[in-house]
Amino acid sequence: MTExxxxxxxxxxxxxxxxxxxxxxxxAGRVLAQALWSQVAEHARFGGVxxxxxxxxxxxxxxxxxxxxxxEAGAAPTAVAATTGPGLIGGLIVGANLAKGLALARSLPFYxxxxxxxxxxxxxxxxxxxxxPDFPYLTLLVSGGHxxxxxxxxxxxxxxxxRTLDDxxxxxxxxVAKMLGLGWPGGPALERLxxxxxxxxxxxxxAMRGRAGCDFSFSGLKTAVATRLAARxxxxxxxxxxxxxxxxxxxxxxxxxxxxxxxxxxxxxCATLVISGGVAANATVRAALAExxxxxxxxxxxxPPALCTDNAVMVAWAAIxxxxxxxxxxxxxxxxxxxxxxxxxxxxxx
Length: 350
Ligand code: KG4
Ligand code: ZN
Fold this sequence. Notes:
Blueprint: E1 9-14, E2 19-26, E3 31-38, H1 40-43, H2 51-73, E4 79-85, H3 89-106, E5 110-114, H4 115-121, E6 137-142, E7 147-154, E8 157-163, H5 169-179, H6 187-194, H7 219-232, H8 238-266, E9 272-276, H9 283-295, E10 299-301, H10 305-308, H11 313-324, E11 334-335, E12 347-348
Parallel strand pairs: 1-4, 4-5, 6-9, 9-10
Antiparallel strand pairs: 1-2, 2-3, 6-7, 7-8, 11-12
Helix pairs in contact: 2-3, 4-11, 5-7, 5-8, 6-8, 8-9
The chain binds 5'-O-[(R)-(carboxyoxy)(hydroxy)phosphoryl]adenosine (KG4) and zinc ion.
Zinc ion binds at residues 115, 119, 143, 277, 310.
């Protein structure tokens, strides 16, 4: 699927966490069909993703979803892609095996896609930003499991500049939301509650601010919220909870902005700051990063929230970007891998 094959179509599968997703894109990156099923209801009563349940749910739903997108797309795929890491191994196996089976049966190339690369490249999907950001750009990837600042140089070419030393920001959102009794996943609920609160009401720490390097830390902030709540002892009022949520959200946004500023100053060749991952769906976070980008003379590209959270469109797009630079994909012996650094090679079967 190199340049002459742009008329082709890619079928892609995403099953690395708790979203079951399939999509078909044409060679130019237009979405012909997509399906996404969030497993939130399956896991909510456990307060987080249960890996075994997630794998079984992917297995139950994925085949029907793939059939549906293939029927809707009306174009036979010329390549198949699946997220093969990083993520929960059970789900990765389900998605990778279905994709490999289709590739084998139809004699199509198979792309083993790195989930983090898919998030990083999603900013270049047609329709997200006009013109699409040129390489290299700086990507801030902030989700429930990841927190990275990366120089995105091209498909397969990524330089990690900073990462979290403890929690990911989405994890911090989820834990604080749980403390406030907002259920799981907590990010969107906390954002709604924060809208009623005063972000200056509760003084909270800003870890790493002004420090050299581009690493992050969120566990101190989470602990500060827990300590504050414990000190209140009795039931906190709705007002107090909203103030705490707003103050927490402001602290996260400020920390992300501070670290992104530090990173931007080390990559003058990057004209664009891209944000992706579930936390990039947060309006306060987006506003703080827009401000930093403007101050540093860069352009901010933030894909719409539905493309920031996990989906199969970005997986198909990552395969298309790779194909365009002549990458033929992987053979079918490639194994899913729960840990897979950006820039690392996909694993081979032993
Ligand atoms: O990228 P994603 O869908 O899945 C991975 O973790 O890979 O991100 C999910 C995370 C969860 O922690 C969720 O609470 C957080 O992103 N999140 C948000 C918002 N929407 C999702 N955090 C803050 N504000 C939001 N609006
Ligand atoms: Zn993700």
